[in-house]
Records
---
Amino acid sequence: MSTERIVTAETHTSDLPDSIGAPRPRRLDEFVGQTQLCERLGIALKAASGRSDPMEHLLLHGPPGLGKTTVAHIVAEEMNSHAYVTSGPALTKGADLVGTLTRMQPGDVLFIDEIHRLPAAVEEYIYPAMEDFKIDFTLDGGMHARVVTYQLKPFTLIGATTRAGLLTAALRSRFGIAHRLDFYSQDDLDTILERAATRMGIQLDSGEARSLIAARSRGTPRICLRLLRRVRDFAEVRGEGTITTELAGEALLLEGVDDGGLDPLDRSYMRVLAETYEGGPAGLEAIAATLGEDSGTLEDLVEPFLLQAGLLARTRQGRQLTASGRERAGCKPSSGPLFDH
Ligand SMILES: Nc1ncnc2c1ncn2[C@@H]1O[C@H](COP(=O)(O)OP(=O)(O)O)[C@@H](O)[C@H]1O
Ligand SMILES: [Mg+2]
C-alpha cells in the first residue's frame, strides 16, 4: 500500500539517522533543557493518562536540530504507544493518510514533520480527524459516489515546523498545545555532550574540551553532537583517542566553525549586511537577493540565532547589526573585514 512508504511506524527511536552513535533521549526526564516545554508536557501527559485520554495535539516550532522529532518520540514512549512518522511534503492527498489513521490504536502519535508544507487538501482532510477523530471516505466514483464516515481511535497529532508563520490559522488553532523551542544554553549543551560521550564511550580529558565544542554549537544539540563525532574522529586519527582541549581546538578549526559558533551562511549574512548595507538597516528581501538565498531560509535558519546571540536587531526599518555584530563583522570596509571570503 502506498501509505507504507509515506508513513513509517517507528518503534525503536534509536534507529533514526540523527542519532548515529548517540541514541536520542527516550523519556522526558532524559531530555535536557527546554524546562518550560518539559513542564508543560509533563502536566499534559500526566493529566491525559489520568483520564485515559490521548495527549492533546501538539505543535512544535523552532529552528532545526533543537529536538522537535525527539519530543514527538518521547511523547509516544511516555504514552506507551507507537509513533507514526510522516512529513508534509510526503502527503499529497487525504487518502495517503487513511491507512495509518485507521490502523492507529488509542493514544498513538501521528508525527507530521514540516507540517507547513502540508497540501491544503490534506489539511482539510485532517481537521475532522483532529477534532472529532473521524474521517470521510469516498466510495465508488461518479454517480454512485458515497461518502462514508469512519470513526478513528483517539490519537495525538504532533506537528513540527521551522515556519510557524506559514501555518493557516485554522490548522494552528486545532492544536491544544503549541510550543516554540529555544536555542540551548552552554550548560545544557555541555550536559548533552557529557551524556552522549558517556554513551558513545568517548573519552574527554577535561570539561574544557567539552565547553569548547558546546561554545561552537550554535545553541543546537544536533550541531554539538555532530561536532563531537568529528572531534572524536580527529582524536582517534591524530591523537591517542582521548579528546584533549588541544585536539578539540584543532579539530574544530578544521571544521570551519568560528569561536562564536557561526556557520558559513551566518557569516555571509553578516558580511553582506556589514559590507553592502553598511551595517543596515536593510530589508530582508534585499539581503536575500544579494546573498542569492531564499528570504524564508534566512528568516528561519540564520536570523533566530543571530538575534539571540545579540549580533542582529530587527527594527522597523529593517535588519541591523548591533554594536557587537558590527564589531564581529568588521563593519567599516576601511578597517578590513574580519571574515575570510
Ligand atoms: N534536549 C535534548 N537532549 C538531548 N539530546 C537532544 C535534545 N534535543 C535534541 N537532541 C539531539 O539532537 C539531535 C537533533 O534533534 P531532533 O529532534 O532531530 O531535532 P529537530 O527535529 O528539531 O530538527 C538528535 O540526535 C537528538 O537526540
Ligand atoms: Mg526533525
Note: The two ends are 50 Å apart (CA to CA).
---
Amino acid sequence: MPRLMGSWTDGLVRWEQRMLPAECLVCQQRHHEVGEPLVCAACRMQWRAIPAPICSLCGEPQPLGLACRVCAEWPAGFGPVRSAVQLDARVRPLVHRFKYLGWWRLADSFAARMAPLVDRASDADLIPIPLAAGRRRRRGYNQAERLAAALSMQTGLPCRSDRLGRVRETPTQTRLTPEGRLANLADAFAAAASDRPAILVDDVFTTGATLLSAAGALLDAGAPEVQAITFARAEPPLAGSAARLGTLIHFRVTEELV
Ligand SMILES: [Zn+2]
Ligand SMILES: [Zn+2]
C-alpha cells in the first residue's frame, strides 16, 4: 500500500510539473500563468532602459548634447535605431545564455521589452541579422532570428529572414575598433530585391557596424527605409572623443545613483 501511495504522489508531482507554470529564471518565483516568458514581468521591469537624452537617429545616449559621432556618416534612409535596455551586469549573463548556451526561449522575455519601441505603423518587415551558415550550424540556431520571430508574434509585423543573407563568415568582431569592425563587415551581407521598408533585429548594439552594413545591403536592394531595434546596448567603448567621455561619465553617475 505505501508503494502504491508513493507512485500516486510521484505521478501527481509529474502531472503538476507538466500542468503548472515553471519558475522565473532570475528570481525563481513561480510563474502565475502557464506559458509566461522565462523571466517574470517584475524581473523584466528591473532591466534599465537607455538613459535619456539619446540621439534621435542612432539611439546613443547623448548627455552633453554634443553632435553625435556614432551616426554622423550613416546613409540617408537608415534609422532610427533603438535598443530596449542597457547591457549591464544584470542583463549581460542573460544575453550570454541566450546567444551561446542554447537558452533561445529567452527571446519572448527580451521581445516583451522591445515591442513597445517597434514602429508598428511602418508596416515594415522584421529582418533578423543573419549568422554565417557555419556559425549557425555550430550554435544550432540564430539568436536574432528567434528574437525577430518573438517580436513578430508580439507586434503582428511579418518576420522575413529570407530578405537578408550572409555572404561570407566574418572574423569575430569583439576585439576590433569601430573602424576595424566596419572594414571587417564590408560586403558581408546580400539582400533580396524588395521595395518594402525593413526593421533589422539583433540582440546587442555595440558600435552599430553590423546594422549599418546590413542596412546598406537592404537600401541598395530597394528598401525605402531601414530602421533597427536591438534588445540591449553595450556601454560605448573607450574612445578619445569628448562625446564618448561624456557618455562614460554619465553611465558612471547613473550606476552610482541606482
Ligand atoms: Zn522573476
Ligand atoms: Zn547618433
Note: The chain has two domains: 1-36, 49-257.
---
Amino acid sequence: MTNTVPPMRERESPNHGPRRAGAAIDMLVLHYTGMDNAGIALDRLCDPAKQVGAHYAIEEDGTIWRLIPEDRRAWHAGLSFWAGETDINSRSIGIELVNPGHGPDYHSFPEAQMVALEALCRDIVSRHPIPPHRIVGHSDVAPGRKRDPGELFDWRRLAAAGISLWPEKIEPALPSNADFAELMRRFGYADSSVESIIAFQRHFRPANLTGIADDETKARLAALAKQAGLA
Ligand SMILES: [Zn+2]
C-alpha cells in the first residue's frame, strides 16, 4: 500500500470558517455533488452565495481538487449528528464526489474516481486520528434529509482497501430489538428510526433499503459494532 496522493488541482472556496476550538479532526464525511457535471458542481462549491463547501472534490476521471485547507471548518454536513456530536463540520473533513445523484442519471462511481478517493482517504487518515467507523456518508449523519453518496457507492471496496468498515464476518447471535436500538446509538446514529435504519442500509446493506431491522440488518450492525470495538 502506498500513501502517494495523485497530483491535485487547486481552487479556492470561500465557504468555510474556523473550526470549534479544541475539536479534533476525527471524522471523514463522503458526499456526492448531485449536479449535472463537474463544472457546475465546482462552481457551486466555490460560490459565496451558496454557502456550501468541502475540503476536496473528486471528478469522475479521478482529478482531485483541493478547495479548502483541512484546518478550516468547511460547510458540508449541515444539520447533522454522529455519536453525540452535532457540529460535524468542526470534527470532519468533507469530500465531494462528482455524481449526478439520485435521479435518472445516478450511477456507480467510476474506477478512476474510486482509485483517487482511496489514495486521498489513505493520505488523510495517515495524518488525522480518524477510526474506520467514523468514515461515514452524509446520509449517515443526516438520515431522512440526505441520501448521499447513496447505495451505489462501493463502501465494501473502501473497507477492502483498509480505509472504512464492512460487515464481512457476520455474528451468529442476533441482537434483540432493544439491543439493536442501543447498538445503533453506540455506533453513531441518532436513533433507530426508519430513516436511520434506511441510512444504515444505504451504507451497509445497499440491496435492501426497507427501513426494517430484519435479521440480516441486525447481524450486520452487530458485526460492525464488534469490529469497531463498540459492542
Ligand atoms: Zn452531502
Note: The radius of gyration is 17 Å.
---
Amino acid sequence: MVNKENRRLKVGVLGCGPIAQFAHFESCQKGRNTDLYAICDFADDLRERMNAVWQPQVSYANYEAMLDDPLVEAVVIATADSFHVPMALQAVKAGKHVLIEKPLSHSLAECQALAEAAANTGVIIQVAHMKRFDPNIAFAKTFIDNRLGEMLAFKAWYCDSTHRYTIYRQLTTTSRTKQ
Ligand SMILES: NC(=O)c1ccc[n+]([C@@H]2O[C@H](COP(=O)([O-])OP(=O)(O)OC[C@H]3O[C@@H](n4cnc5c(N)ncnc54)[C@H](O)[C@@H]3O)[C@@H](O)[C@H]2O)c1
C-alpha cells in the first residue's frame, strides 16, 4: 500500500501499448506524488480495456482533447518513436510537463528543436531512461568504476521479465477474437 502525498501530479498517458501497460500505468498509480488521471489511445478496444483495468478518471481517444483538459498537468508519451518529438512539442505548447519514451528521436535536429521550444517555458521534459535510476545498475556502475581496475573490454547482459510478452499476446489475441 502506497502512502500517497496530498499534492499529486495529475498525469495523462498517451498510448496504451505494451510499454504503457508494463510500466507507465502502474508507475503513475503507485507513485507517491502522482495520479493516473487520464489515458489516451485512438484504438477504441484497447483504450476501453485499459480503462477497465486501470480506471483512470478520464479516457480520451484524441490527444488534443487530453491536452485541452486543464486538469492534466503532465503527459507521458508512449507512442512509436517518430511521433515522440511532434507530440512533445504539442504538450510543451499546451504547458504540460512531459515524460517521453526512449528513444527521444532518431534525429539530433529534432531533439534540439524540442529543447529550444521548451527553454524558458517552465515545462519539464524528461526522457524515460529509467535505468539511470535503478539502484542495481548504479551499484554495478560503482563496482565497475571502483573495483574492477582498468577496463580493457566491456560486455554486459540485461535480463528482463519474460512474462510481459505472454500477457501482451493474451491481450491482443482476445482483442482480435472479439472483433
Ligand atoms: N514495449 C517496450 O517494451 C518498450 C521498452 C522501452 C521503450 N519503448 C518505447 O515506447 C514507445 C511505445 O512502445 P509500444 O511498444 O508501447 O508502442 P505501440 O506502438 O505498441 O503502442 C503505441 C500506442 O499509441 C497509440 N497511438 C499512437 N498514436 C496515437 C495518437 N495520435 N493518438 C492516440 N493514440 C495513439 C496506438 O494506437 C498504440 O496503441 C516506443 O517509442 C518504444 O521504443 C517500448
Note: Residues 15-20, 40-43, 46, 63, 78-81, 83, 101-102 surround nicotinamide-adenine-dinucleotide (CB under 6 Å).
